[in-house]
Amino acid sequence: MPPASTTPQQRITELERELTTRERVYPRWVRDGKISQQTADHRVQVLRDLIAELRTRYPQPGQASLFTPDQLPPPRHTFRPDDRPRHVFD
Asked: Hey, CA dihedral for 38, 27, 29, 53, is it positive or negative?
């Protein structure tokens, strides 16, 4: 899978934008019979859960972590300064 071309914060911002749109549009769609209230509630809750999960996994700079260092999983790989990934432009 290719690396993500967006940052976690960009993804959170986009999900928040979509949540705001759904919160604005869904009441009218429910009233017009386009979707049920149950479907609207579920879709909004899914976005809220995704946003909360991303915020937990990727706290903003300066935001306190919910975990102490001993609760974090070990790194999968530790690079030494001399074996960092090389790029074509280096």
From this structure: negative
Tell me the backbone φ, ψ of residue 81, rounded to 5 degrees: -55, -35
Phi/psi class of residue 73: alpha, beta or left (left: φ > 0; alpha: ψ in -120 to 50)? beta
Which residue, among 6, 1, 11, 7, has the nearest Cα to 53 in the 3D structure? 11
Q: What is the pLDDT along the chain (90 residues), one digit of tens a residue?
A: 666 798 899 999 999 999 999 999 999 999 999 999 999 999 999 999 999 999 999 887 765 556 565 566 665 555 555 555 555 554
Q: Which two tokens stand for residue 81?
A: 């300064």
Q: Count each helix (H run) and each strand (E run) in the chain, helices first.
A: 2, 0
Q: How far does the chain reach from its first CA to its final CA, in angstroms?
A: 24
